[in-house]
Amino acid sequence: MAKPHSIFACTECGAQQPRWMGRCPECGAWSTLQEERTGGASAESATPNLLADASDAAPKPLPLGEIDPEQAPRLPTGIPELDRVLGGGLVPGSVLLLAGEPGIGKSTLALQLAAALPDGARVLYVAGEESPEQIRLRADRLPALPVNLAVLAETRVEELAGPWRELDPAVVVVDSVQTLRTARVESAPGSVAQVRESASLLAAAARVQGAALVLVGHVTKEGSIAGPRVLEHLVDVVLQFEGDRGHAFRLLRAHKNRFGSTQEVGVFRMGASGLEAVENPSELFLAERSGGAPGSCVVPLLEGSRPMLVEIQALVAPAGYGTARRTAIGVEDGRVALLLAVLERRAGVDLASRDVYVNAVGGVRVGEPAADLALALALASSRLDIPLPDDVVACGEVGLGGEIRRVARSDLRVAEALRLGFRRVLLPEGASELLGGAPAQALVGVRDLAAALAWLRAEGRSGST
Ligand code: TYD
Ligand code: MG
């Protein structure tokens, strides 16, 4: 018999190596290789002929046209923002990975989901991180106590079978998947092998029993799903819970959804009694906006198919001793550096030896190039000490030549800005022709950054007085 041996798997990318290394040769991450034991037997026995062993009792393939999609009914979670992201609700027998940084509100969302489920839908909450008392304490802060929820403090997968069968739950929550372990694998809890094996055992159970399995998973600071990255293939839906822990605002985004679109986002606010839905994110972000100060510009962003207005602030100050500091929160450093260079070279704004600070208000992470124009205007406005008029938003991508480029769904963005009382939208020249619905005086087309700055010089002062 072949003796068992070890392989080493990377917790970031899942690549396997025959020996331990300090750095994963596949993805370049440091100290991510972990030992896994393998049986060794199967690899050496001859590969059997799969077709020769086929039995008559095998399942029959179904013609695609005869498959009834209604066979997969939805279990609405009762939380509209969550249902929106899921595409209508949880699908029985499916597996959902709820990923996010520690402290973002995953456990809270799981409890609220349990409370909002329709009557009779039981929930088994597998608690690996917190004691049942801690879970009860958290539940007491929420608007409704999930009476249909049973807590099981157990991390051994094999021990879950009994309670699962007995309770016959509609939803099984595992908080978190990193704490699970199964006797089938020898490695430590949280290792790639444990997480993968435990999750696939539970996923198989969920399919057979028809429960929706919700796996809570932590992600690292870099945003990748640590360990459970390998789960992305195994699960049907990956929801990512995002936001800044210092702020109340939370975004729930579908990274993968076998039952719906990945275009929808759910917007929440973490309050004193759990997560509340935010129907008008723009109003949340603009609530404390003072206006009239240089270095601020509002941009209509698009999250999925939802427009939301976000304020971008910039502060340009003379650099102190040594090299100039460039600090950006909520905006990519590279994007800021690019716009500084374009402002300097194409629009003649002197930014050398200046400290630059950029902030997207409300803890929002701005990933869209559509925010370029607003960011450039905020930077220029601070540098030139000219405030933008209060009634203006800007959207457009800035190219290296200083040209302003069109962005997707300008119509939705303009409509949202006008709905919230803004009267003018700065956007790429030509894009305004596509927006038949918007009043012509609301649309200000600019060809390049130099034109945008000329507009700022002409309108900024007058708008602020
Ligand atoms: P939690 O759900 O424990 O996060 P995760 O499971 O993702 O680690 O939520 C953590 C934070 O949310 C915690 O810092 C406290 C805060 N919180 C509130 O602000 N209000 C509430 O009603 C609850 C339940 C939590
Ligand atoms: Mg938690």
Provide the fold topology.
Elements: E1 5-10, E2 16-17, E3 33-38, H1 41-44, H2 80-86, E4 95-100, H3 106-116, E5 123-127, H4 132-141, E6 149-152, H5 157-167, E7 171-175, H6 192-209, E8 212-218, E9 237-243, E10 249-257, E11 265-271, E12 274-277, H7 281-286, E13 296-303, E14 306-318, E15 326-329, H8 333-347, E16 354-360, H9 372-384, E17 392-394, E18 397-398, E19 404-405, H10 410-419, E20 424-428, E21 443-446, H11 449-464
Parallel strand pairs: 4-8, 4-9, 5-6, 5-7, 7-8, 15-16, 17-20, 20-21
Antiparallel strand pairs: 1-2, 1-3, 9-10, 10-11, 11-12, 13-14, 14-16, 18-19
Helix pairs in contact: 8-9, 9-11
This protein binds thymidine-5'-diphosphate and magnesium ion.
Thymidine-5'-diphosphate is lined by residues 100, 102-108, 138, 141, 270, 272-274.
